[in-house]
Amino acid sequence: MRSQQSRTAQSAHNRSAHSRRPAETGYVLALSALLMIPLLAVVGFATDVGSWYAEGIRMQRAADAASLAGVVWLPDLPKATDVALDTARENGFDSNDPEISIVVESVGTQQLRVTISDDAADLYFSSLFLDNVLIERAAVAEYVLPVPLGSPKNYIGTAGMVGPPNGPEGFWMALNGFCAPKEQGDPFATRFSGNWPNTMICPSPLGPGPNSDPFTGDSYFEVNDDYLTMPQYEYIVELPEARGQDTIISIYDAAKHDSATASPDLGGNQPLTTTFTLREPDNTPFDDSDNPIYGGCTSDGANPRTFPYGESDFDFSFFGSNRWTRFCTIPANAPAGRWILQVHNQAMEEDAFSVNNYSIFATKGTSGTVCDTRNDPQCPAVFGKNWMSIYAQANAPEAEFYLAEIEPEHAGKQMIITLFDPGEGGNYVEVRDPNGNSVPFTYQTRDGDYSGGPTTQLNVSGCVGWPQLGPGRQSRCRFNERYVEIAVDLPEDYETLYPDDHWWKIYYDFNADVTDRTTWSVRIVGDPVRLVN
């Protein structure tokens, strides 16, 4: 009986399940259909997001390239904008496209921001939910000008003329004559690689290619075709905006003179002619070769102006000396920025074996007041550009003077100090940070003969027995006629360590009074154009 009842119940259950299956199947199909819509939307949205992300990467690369290409043309914003737009177009984003917007704007005088926007990005599945999507990317590029050398003040190369608290500087600006040997400390203005010509007569005629002294056979370097117009050294006179007074550029003892009151020019009684050329700022801060010669110096004298000159040309007295000559007056309404003062000697000048020591002073009006760019925003700065050739002089066995201004943007980078023919007759040379502390460095000569470090002192003593670059040299000092490259690692926390002062210094230690004819340069390793955002 129970078995029959069980079979009857099972049969009824099977009939019931069979009767429900079509309805349940329809429910699953309907539910699956409903779920497919959001699933497809999610998949489609993910596809669109991937497309937008790829477009954003392309856009960022274009903005980076455009800002880097355009920033070098500042402060000429129209030119920088044209270059940036052309670069963006080359990278796939055209400002003429109605769906593309490109905004180019300056941020100060050395930064350029490029913003690229697309307010009609491609929509596929997302068009079911969105009307439009905006993609925008921006980049800010900055150019870094060459490191200022030698002075945060409005004068440079005054040796001991300026008293405390502004001085003394401890060095003169210097230029050797055409016929002097390079081992005297000037690698650019001199032509001889070796000893002085025995006859003390500058070889003539000189022409392109290797030459030798017809009297002695001593060899010297070839003469460049553009030697007569090529400046050996350049200085910057940086004028601030909104100046209330004219700026007068004066030069102390601009040519070698035989006078007890002049700077201590070296080399006996031989003449040395020096030419100064003032160029005004233009819209290409990385290319100074096209800066126009300033035509407004006519009331003071010619520009370019060649010295020597008569005693009557000394028209200013500063720092207790009357051997200052007004070179050029720049009106208060003239362009602000970096004015370039170029200096070169005269090629093939007979008997030009001497050294001309001189100074540069940029005064606010005729007052002759000294100022410091670190605490006076209206102070006209005067500093060396790229290379600075000096005669270090101090009436003491030690001297410390300004080397270069290193700004916080260089934190974590490496500073390379190049010294040519340094420290002959001295004990050691130190590099000191803005806090006055000697810092460790490594060094090597360009010829590979000497290297060392880490150390805090460059040993320049012991001028006996060192092998020289070639025959005929007078000096036997280790670094005679050699370039020494000193590498200093700048700290990552630069601005914390040096919040108020960014000027580094060089320290000399001698057995007697400091006297050294040398030339140096400072650069930061890395591209002068960089992305900052």
Helix/strand layout:
Blueprint: H1 2-71, H2 77-90, E1 100-107, E2 111-118, E3 135-143, E4 155-156, E5 171-176, E6 211-212, E7 219-220, E8 233-239, E9 247-252, E10 274-279, E11 305-307, E12 316-318, E13 321-330, E14 337-345, E15 355-364, E16 381-385, E17 388-394, E18 398-405, E19 414-420, E20 426-432, E21 441-445, E22 451-455, E23 458-459, E24 483-489, H3 494-497, E25 503-510, E26 514-524, E27 529-531
Antiparallel strand pairs: 1-2, 2-3, 3-27, 4-15, 5-15, 5-17, 6-7, 8-14, 8-16, 9-13, 9-15, 10-11, 10-14, 12-13, 17-26, 18-25, 19-24, 19-26, 20-23, 20-25, 21-22, 21-24
Helix pairs in contact: 1-2
What tags apply to this protein structure?
533 residues; alpha+beta; Jelly Rolls; twelve-stranded antiparallel sheet; five-stranded antiparallel sheet; 3 helices; 27 strands
